[in-house]
Write a structure and sequence with these properties.
With about 140 residues, the chain is mostly helical. The protein is built from 6 helices and no strands. The radius of gyration is 25 Å and the shape is rod-shaped.
């Protein structure tokens, strides 16, 4: 799920109906389940993407050293690397490589999603305190 979609959903889900606090309290486990499942899915994508990035880094390192076979080059749609590259320059080439930059950008996006979902889960954990505070305030206003 996209970050914008999650933000819109959370805007709706975070509302506590002050007129029906029991129902709001009962929704807490459901909300926790919903967002923990989203977090698990994103973390699984992150793990796969990290493995894909590691494979791509290894393959690109071989590419920049000129060690790929013609079949490997054809499989990836790459032309032969025609430059002499010393080991110290490979890291800079990897950082500038557009294929790796796409993977790094995806990893950063998943980190942002994880941060958002962990924040939402933290808020859900404290939801019962918010409901309790609202209930106490209502009792105080009623003179109880």
């Amino acid at each position: 799920m996209l970050l914008d979609e999650l933000k819109v959903q959370w805007e709706k889900d975070c509302i506590i109906d002050e007129l029906n606090l029991g129902s709001a309290a009962a929704r807490t486990p459901m909300l926790h389940s919903k967002y923990i499942n989203e977090l698990i899915a994103v973390k699984m994508k992150q793990t796969k993407l990290q493995m894909d990035s590691a494979k791509m880094r290894a393959l690109k390192s071989k590419y920049f050293r000129g060690e790929l076979t013609s079949q490997e080059l054809a499989d990836n749609g790459w032309e032969q690397w025609h430059y002499k590259t010393i080991r110290a320059d490979i890291e800079g080439l990897l950082e500038a490589d557009s294929d790796l930059q796409v993977l790094i950008a995806r990893e950063q996006y998943l980190k942002i999603l994880i941060y958002f979902l962990e924040s939402v889960l933290g808020e859900i954990k404290s939801r019962s305190f918010s409901i309790r505070a609202t209930l106490d305030w209502q009792k105080f206003r009623a003179g109880n």
